[in-house]
Amino acid sequence: MKKILLIISMFMVFMIGYGKEKALDVNMEAGAKIPSFQLRDFSGKYTNSRKIFNNGKPTLLVLAAEWCPYCRSELPDVQKFYEENKDNVNVVVVFTRRKTNLSETKKYAEESKFTFPVYYDADDSIMKGFKANSIPYNIKIENSKIQEILGGTMQYDAIKSAFGIE
């Protein structure tokens, strides 16, 4: 009887240990493949990152926060870039939960009249997975591979240049 309990206990430990979703961990080198992960929009709906990153268009991924003055400076330029290039370039903005909450972030995005796709990093997994220690943090992605880490605050002309748009 003890053997059966021991075997069942070991099986349960094994199942619990492997049942957890693996944390996002992105190799932040140019050319590195980004593992699939879930993006959560403001209404709680999830989208698989592959659906966006593998749709044949390059992607500008921006990690931002509504309270960040540099983000507030950059995001209107990201909006302008999105409006002019949405047929040829994906724009994905992920807002962090650090120092804020969903309702404040949602209010900011609505008041700013952003039309680019916005997502919320409710558990900080995306910020941690992309090793973003500062915001804004901009990454150029194509076919789920990092093409270039664009770094911090970018203005409109720099964003266009990064995507080869004159």
UniProtKB/TrEMBL annotation:
PROSITE patterns: THIOREDOXIN_2 (PS51352). Coiled coil: none annotated. One of its GO terms (molecular function) is oxidoreductase activity. InterPro entries: AhpC/TSA, Thioredoxin-like_sf, Thioredoxin_domain, Thioredoxin_ResA/DsbE_sf. It holds the Pfam family AhpC-TSA. Residues 28-166 form the Thioredoxin domain. PANTHER family: PROTEIN DIPZ (PTHR42852:SF13), THIOL:DISULFIDE INTERCHANGE PROTEIN DSBE (PTHR42852). This is Antioxidant, AhpC/TSA family. It comes from Leptotrichia wadei (strain F0279).
